[in-house]
Amino acid sequence: MGEHQPTTSLVVRVALPGDLEGLYDLARVAGPGMTNLQADRDVLAEKLGASAAAVTSAEAREAGSPILLVVEQSTAGAGPEVVGTACIFPRVGVTWPFYSYRITRQNRASQALGKRVSHDILNLANDFDGAAEVGGLFILPSVRGMAAGRLVARARYLFLASHRDWFGPQVISEMRGYQDDAGGSPVWDALGQRFYDMDFAEADRTNALTGNQFIADLGPRHPIYVSLLSDAAQAALGKPHDHGRPAMQLLLEEGFRFEGYVDIFDGGPTLFADVDDLVAVRDSQSARIHRVVAGDQGETRLVCAGQGPDFRCAKGAFNPTDGAVEISQGLADSLRVKAGDQVRHVRF
């Protein structure tokens, strides 16, 4: 007879002040390079306060205060545990310009030599000022086999759909850039370090604590020819961190695209999309719960409920019934809903 496995559920919700220690533990596991998840309790406490303001105040959202989500794991017989997190920034480029490099192609020709050459060029740009941003996604390795990354990633888009008037027309996502086996960034070593006189970890901390205005203050004033960088840096431009490849694939499947924008620190790809074209926004529907039933029969869908600080999202058994729906008791418990409540749902 096999040993009985305790029932485990995952729910995505807005972070609370009591999540500080859970987020700190996540940050310690994540390590350097996660700009939005620094292992600093004061920084994390400030982010929690800003998030609480963002889900209750239009003024805070206009100021760019981030909305912090957490993934909570509940196991029968044990207390809930924070096992993941992600961020939504209602606006970027508010407090300081949002800088990125855009890779463009320049073609040159010499009639005398009968030769044409092409060069990729890095141009400092702030084309995404005012866009929303999704980022800061990190999941503990212990729950990655439970589709937790996909859950929290798509929960962000249902949050956008459920609060559509909070956000502008575009959304971006900056991917963590490629790092070598020693944890170094070839792009930073070839480019950033020469202008800012600090190592990658220090630059990352400075950006998290004070913003990236120092990029404009100290950075290159003119376009940079990619061919002048090291071979390792050239290969790393637009390449995500090895751990970020699954997340990038999820973004592309959701409707994001890559058109040559890269992070100014580590050269990671910056993807963007029109909010209304995201699959979870475009295809999600609102419905009223007709009945809560025992068991898990029905299609597994991603379902959210609640507004602002009460937003919760989980996946579970879901049955449509002539414009209303039946959901499982487990899903109802995760979302804290009952018959008669309104939910939004999309295929998981």
Distance between the termini: 33 Å
Q: Over all CA atoms, what is the radius of gyration?
A: 22 Å
Number of domains: 3
How would you describe the shape? elongated
The secondary-structure class comes to alpha+beta
Low-pLDDT residue spans: 1-5
Write down how many β-strands occur, each being a DSSP E stretch of 2 or more residues: 15
Q: Number of DSSP helices?
A: 11
The portion of residues forming beta strands comes to: 25-35%
What does the largest sheet look like? 5 strands, mixed, barrel
On the 0 to 100 scale, the average pLDDT is 90
Q: What's the helix-strand series? A: EHHHEEEEEHEHHHEHHEEHEEEEHE
Share of helix, binned: 25-40%
Strand order within the widest beta sheet: 11-14-13-12-15
Structural write-up:
By secondary structure, the protein is an alpha+beta fold. The protein has 3 domains: 1-90 and 130-168, Aminopeptidase, CATH 3.40.630; 95-129 and 169-174 and 186-283, no CATH class; 285-347, Beta Barrel (Barwin-like endoglucanases). The protein has 11 helices and 15 strands. Strands 11-14-13-12-15 form a 5-stranded mixed barrel. 42% of the residues are buried. Mean pLDDT is 90; it is low at 1-5.
